[in-house]
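Support request from a user on the community tier.

User writes: "When I paste my structure tokens into the form, the page sometimes reloads and wipes my input. The last time it worked, I copied everything first. Here is what I submitted, just in case something in the input itself triggers the reload:"
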């Protein structure tokens, strides 16, 4: 199936979203909030693993065979 791309402005998305029935609007708002929180947590988590990318820390990438 071919991939379809829409070119739509954030303003137009907002207009469309505000036309949703209350229940669907609230469900969408919760999904957007959940996604935003996940993205923020992932961005924060990346900072905790930067030390593994430093030179000399390759032991984390290698598998030891005996």
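"...and here is what came back when it finally went through:"
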């Amino acid at each position: 199936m071919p991939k379809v791309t829409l070119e739509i402005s954030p303003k137009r998305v907002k207009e469309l979203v505000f036309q949703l029935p209350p229940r669907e609007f609230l469900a969408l708002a919760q999904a957007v909030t959940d996604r935003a929180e996940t993205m923020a947590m992932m961005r924060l988590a990346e900072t905790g693993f930067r030390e593994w990318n430093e030179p000399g820390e390759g032991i984390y990438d290698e598998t030891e065979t005996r």
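Agent notes: The reload is a front-end session timeout and is unrelated to the input. The first helix runs from residue 10 to 17. The chain has a mean pLDDT of 84. Escalated to web team.
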